[in-house]
Amino acid sequence: MGVKVISDSTCDLSQELTERYQIDIIPLHVVLGEDEYLDGVTISPDQIYAWSDAHKSTPKTSALSIDMVMEALKPALDRGDEVVAFSISSEMSTTANVMRMAAKELDAEDRVFVVDSRNLSTGVGIQAIAAAELAQQGKTGAEIVAYLEDVTPRVRASFVVDVLTYLHRGGRCSGLAALAGSALRLHPRIGVADGVMSPGKKYRGHIDKFVMAYVKDMEEALLRADKRRVFITHSGGPADAVVPAVREYLESLHHFDEILVTRAGSVISSHCGPGTLGVLFVDGGEDNANQA
What is the pTM of this model? Predict the structure, then answer.
């Protein structure tokens, strides 16, 4: 008996990473007007931006369907495996509940461990990779979940946005309304804590200036982070051009074993818009040297 790791598509892991760690992805839904698409399967972020610009509207997103979750769970369960399944924060979506309902429908609640990541994007992906590494070491589902109880609160996810329009329309970032109107030229740092997004420090200037200011503001936290990996996750658009400078800066810290660059998927991009970039990692905690 082994452990299969599954995640919803908001984990924003590249195909190379899902193949390396054998993580299965279940797509959320993106709704453009009357048409519904599957994140990363039948719609791309660039198509979403084009639609949004043309219709002056922000797409809607919806949780996984229970049928798709059951279909994703069955192969592993039929093999006799356990499953550790990750969802975007339950404060942002009902996906975790849908996963639990699917496990109940399959009479497999004792073998399906649903993990509410309390996060989004590669804040979910970091946890999924950690689980996959432990699964490869032969850990059980219960042992993996116990390990994640320590890791999940230490995931540091934040990003800085080029335009506030998408986040403002989506209404999922508490406190953002105060930045609307004349403040739309500001570029706030959006942090995730306790499963919800909220704005922090505000930056000004061109994207290459405010992104680097945001990253350098985290230097102290980066230097005490889990050394194994750090993510640069971006939503395309003008953020593309800034990625090399961010990577060069992170390399100059001589701290991380691996610097991973990923493009945010359609669900995350539909809420944050083009030109968004985040640096995501795990705080090293009290014992950065003793890690699984």
Answer: 0.92
